[in-house]
Amino acid sequence: MAEKEFGPGHLALPEDDGKVAHLRGLQIPSIGLAATDGTTVDLAEGGLTVVYVYPRTSPAVGGALEGWDAIPGARGCTSQSCAFRDHFAELKGVGVERLFGLSTQSTDYQKEAAERLHLPFPLLSDSSLSLSRALELPLFEVRGMTLIKRLTLIIDNGRIEHVFYPVSPPERNASDVMAWLSSRRT
């Protein structure tokens, strides 16, 4: 077994395990996902869409799970969400029509995070794992929870155009997405 690589703050770094290689060019299946704004979102519909997928946000009280930092790529859900929040207008400026965060957490759980972090876009729940299983997204188990490994999908008219994976560091993901989208336009 390979030794884990650790980055700043002694966080385990994610590695590309090849588990998303099949996604590029794939048509998104029509699956309704509950959103924190009370709507149901179908990622197969709509124009240029960015979906950043994260394992889970920690509650405002209690913090991260014990051992969370030792899981490669697990830490950083809040900083990733805040980066997309902070770059929301710029993402719209490079043509993004829809922006979502996605996890397997329930919509009620996600609502607290969306409000606490003042997100100007909804978070989507795949608590049933319908989308995750249909797309064969990379999953992992922690304390009886099935979570999705961190990745970001660029979807154009229902087709996956690009995948960022692994995403590290999470707080740079929004900037990386903007740079990729800007280069796509030229």
Automatic annotation (TrEMBL):
GO biological process: cell redox homeostasis; cellular response to oxidative stress
Thioredoxin domain location: 22-186
One Pfam family linked to the record: Redoxin
Cross-referenced SUPFAM superfamilies: Thioredoxin-like (SSF52833)
PROSITE patterns: THIOREDOXIN_2
InterPro entries associated with the record: Peroxiredoxin_BCP/PrxQ (IPR050924), Redoxin (IPR013740), Thioredoxin-like_sf (IPR036249), Thioredoxin_domain (IPR013766)
A cellular component term, taken from the record's GO annotations: cytoplasm
UniProt entry keywords in alphabetical sequence: Antioxidant, Disulfide bond, Oxidoreductase, Peroxidase, Redox-active center
GO molecular function, one term: thioredoxin peroxidase activity
Alphabetized Gene3D superfamilies for the sequence: Glutaredoxin
Descriptive protein name: Peroxiredoxin
